[in-house]
Amino acid sequence: MFHQHISSLFIVFYLYRWNGAAFEVRVPEKQVVAVHRSPAILGCTFTPPPTLQDTVVTWQTVADQRVLHSFYYGTDQLDRQSPEYKNRTSLYHKQLLSGNASLRLEGAGPRDTGKYLCSVSTSQGTDKAELQLSYAAFFTEPQLSILAHDSTYTLQYESEGYPEPEVRWTDALGKNLTHSTQVLQSDENPNLLKLLTYVVADTVKNLSWTLIVVNHPLGQVIERPVRLFYDDQRDHVDCSRERLALLCPVAFCVIGLIILFWGRTKC
Hints:
Elements: H1 2-22, E1 25-26, E2 31-35, E3 40-42, E4 45-46, E5 56-61, E6 67-72, E7 75-76, E8 89-91, E9 103-105, E10 114-122, E11 125-136, E12 143-148, E13 153-161, E14 166-170, E15 180-185, E16 193-201, E17 207-215, E18 220-228, H2 232-266
Parallel strand pairs: 2-11
Antiparallel strand pairs: 1-4, 3-9, 5-6, 5-10, 6-7, 8-9, 10-11, 12-13, 13-16, 14-17, 15-16, 17-18
């Protein structure tokens, strides 16, 4: 009798543990990249519940437990939502019964980077999972400026994106060139960085350089070749014209002196 009682307790304990283990919360992607001007989807799935009445879904920041979104009693509960997430979050309500607790986050920016926790509780159990959110923006088409000085030329490209990219300048043989790069906060958008990069050329004869910008989080690679050529023939023509412009007044002066001298001799 005692052994039967112990066996019954063991079975109950085993079934309890099995049911607890059966309920699970997962994040399909541990690393999520929010793209500028696109909604960020923080994926989260859980064991489908029999009903939503006992289902509680909560999204929070890991660092300071700020609440992004809460759902319980079959509806959104946003009284405890942090102000910075107001009107920016939503769940896929029609898919909750299928076990989809993913969160849609609008207007993501650098301030939203960090770890997030998806917690779900149903009549079947309670579990949670976390993911890392980062932010990136595709760099815009670089705008080229060429500044001419007395004996040098400065080639400068300007673009906007996020985060700070890898920047290289190469010559016609693919060798890296010495260059200067500045990354500043965009004047027009707080979610973007302004990239200024330039190289200085001592001469433009047979100049063939390439700018390479790599945005690693988005796998974006921009390559923009720059080719400048020095027109020797035009320079030769310009020099000839300059010489002619200098010689003409001298020739007129000489001719005038000859005529004047000839006139006096005749008299």
